[in-house]
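Next up, sample data.

:::
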Amino acid sequence: MKKLTTFLSIWLGFIQVAHCEVKVSYEPSDWPQHTLKFSNEGTLKDVFDAGLRPYRYPSLESSSLGFKHLRVTMELKTGTRLPEILVERGSISPLSGGLLSDFEITSPNLSVDEAESLMAKFLFLGPRKQIELKEFLAHAAADPSDYDDPYTGKSDKFGISWEDDSGPKYAVFFKKTFDSSKPVSFALNARWTTNHRTMRELSAFYKTPIPPPPGYENVSMDAPRNFGPDSAVEIARSKGLPITGDRTPEEYEKQWREANDKTRAPKLKTPAVEPKPKSPDNSERWIWLIALIGIITATLLVWRWKSKPTS
């Protein structure tokens, strides 16, 4: 009877786990905040020590890591803390042994005012001026698909770069979004070059899936289902917009922009019934399967217990 009670307790635990769902927030105000400072070596352990939990990209398990939905403050070797950056997505390129080659974070798409306000906080790190920033963003808003920096001629970047003391080479810059309402996103990149690594180190890559750093051996680095950049469908669903299956990606993008426009209050249609996915990883199927196995096993244990001759 004791074995039966133990089994039923474990079985009920599995049922509870099967019912759990991971909640993902697309609202930056809900994203966790982390402060990241690279050591002199610049290692993956620095990233984990800051609280970030990157995952291996499917099909690129030995070369690339990703993460998303964070608020990151970078601290330089001098102790200077850079302004906080909202990170919609990030990527890491580690070298064999845990050293880092490249680290990059990218913000959500920004309006001209949002982009100017954020980049203005970084102007002290380089020679670029406020007037240059304004003119660059004016070009980006006027022609989001084909604009140039009027000062450097570069097609898609307004950048500032510097090298940290005994640390990586940093750069902050804008990326194109091809969206007239939010024409740029903000990015920060940290890169380790031959000034920090030997050629042998820079050419040493993992031949197996990237492992977690020392001290974090039990941390999973498997990619979540929604790895990579957020899709317009995910964001529309999170904001309660109707998902009917007959809208084009362009229409979803339009819904996304309208949902993020605080000056509008779009009237929502009655959501259509969304068909349940037929994928083999449907949680309801697993719940029924676990329940069925549990009932059969419990029945067999009870029958065996009752059939034992009493002494």
Notes: Residues 11 and 294 are 6 Å apart (CA to CA). Residues 1-26+232-311 form one domain.
